[in-house]
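FW: tagging you since you asked about this chain on Friday. Here's the raw sequence from the shared folder, copied in full. Didn't touch anything.
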Amino acid sequence: MFSFFNRLFPFARHITSSRSVSTYCEMADPSSFSNHLNVVIRSTKLDWKVDMEGKKLGGSVEHEVEGLTDAKEVILDARDLNVERVLWEGLETPFKYDKISASLGDRLSISIPLVSKGDRGVLSIVYSTSSSARALQFLSPAQTTDNKGPFLFSQCQAIHARSIVPCQDTPAVKAKYSSKVTVPAGLTCLMSAISTGKDTSGQGEWTFSFHQDIPVPSYLIAIVVGVLERREIGPRSAVWAEGSVVDTAAKEFMETEEFLKAAEEICGEYVWKRYDLVVLPKTFPYGGMENPCLTFVTPTIIAGDGSLVSVVAHEIAHSWTGNLVTTANWDHFWLNEGFTVYLERKINEKVYGRPRRYFDAKEGFESLGETLKFVLPEHSKLRQHLGGIDPDDAFSSIPYEKGSSLLLYLEQEVLSEGESGSFLRDHVRLFSSKGLDTETWLTSMKERFPRMKEHEEIVNEWLYGEGMPPRTPKFIDDSMVVECNKVIDNVLSSSPSSQLFSSLTTTQKIFVLSSLCAKAPFDHAKMEVLASAPFGISSSINCEILSPWIKLGLTSQWEPSIPVALQFAKEYGRLKYCKKTYG
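HL: got it, structure written out here
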């Protein structure tokens, strides 16, 4: 999942090294000003007070840092922070705060006594955020579902952690973190970590404590504050949401444990202890965000029939591919998302059967053609070189679908059946807790699988070439697609059959409606037929149904779609719908 601004940033050249550190990657990252090749953060302690009215976080951070070379300075990433003072081992030390770049933010340079390789020390920083921190979204009570209190949620991916904490804001650095967060009494605080306590004795304030003992990159630090209720949905899972939503959400996500078990069969043990979900208000702009121990999800996936919970399968998959095996920097983002989509579809195969896996894979692959119409050619490569551009201009489904289709091709053409069964488990074992880049992964693949040599030219074109992949994977079960095409032909005929349409799964109905949008406009008589009760389209509460239905109506200039479109736009801020429905 992605940040509010999707500000992915490039990395320069690949730096080879024989050093092996489980939570650190020796790779330059020009999206970060930090000198993480000289000193590296090993653990972080946060002490925050949340000012809901002022829309700020205030407090302090302690970083335990370790020298990798001789160094007399620690340089951290920041953005619009008010730094009051800095201490090294308890003593105040000079610092300099520089505004550098609209794209990358600010640089905090801190003088320290000389540290050598292996030396450790504690850096303490007292600071506060701005009221417009890019990682934070504050909502008034009126902007929530139940109107019972203010709300806060964060989104640090890709480079927005620096707007809430001075840090080495690069996925090359992973650190454990703990936190103490004070909020107005009556509000609940959650973080991407395990809860270690709650103190409600304060006058008008409650304090929550957390600990994340698995090292994570800064973009996976996450916080939620609001009037929330909890429901257990499994032996290691709960769902959090506003009161009017929580029971419906709990029912919707009852398959969570089944997804977790399926993923464990493929990748190995789930090591994060808890897998909880929090349903955010409708303004949350993404489907989900894979914050460890606490996945953020949009309420738009609550359809009443469980048909959209594949988003949860995707975020669960990130628990291995992304959160354990992490991109070295954002030029290699496909290593997060391509692997995650590939794993997500293998999970769905275990839960829903083989036809579903290949239906999703075929639909995703064929969607690349449409995506390519809207991205610059250089941004259609898997292995990116983004340079100094605004990363928003490069974000698309390319790393997701082009990346996952490469892995499906390798499964079919390079791996044996036995190798295919252990491929993802071995991937996690080899690269867990490290920052991974494309070239390191490719070298490993060539060393482990001799047949890679036969496909080297194709794989290189897939990774480094523009446009569509050079080959099409085999979609060995297209039964669901065949059924959809039959219904599409029927709808386009003079006598559309509601019975035929109703026989489809919800996933298939979404595919049919999206396909029909490409064939619009329709005459108004046809729209009236499709809007009739037997089809059940216009009465659906499923946002994935409503979005293409609204677009179909608007494209056909069918007047009854206008009030539906306006209401939909008022209620939902998910970028996917804003772009697809109104773009």
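FW: DSSP finds 16 helices and 22 strands in the chain.
HL: agreed, and The first strand starts at residue 39 and ends at 51.
FW: great, closing this out.
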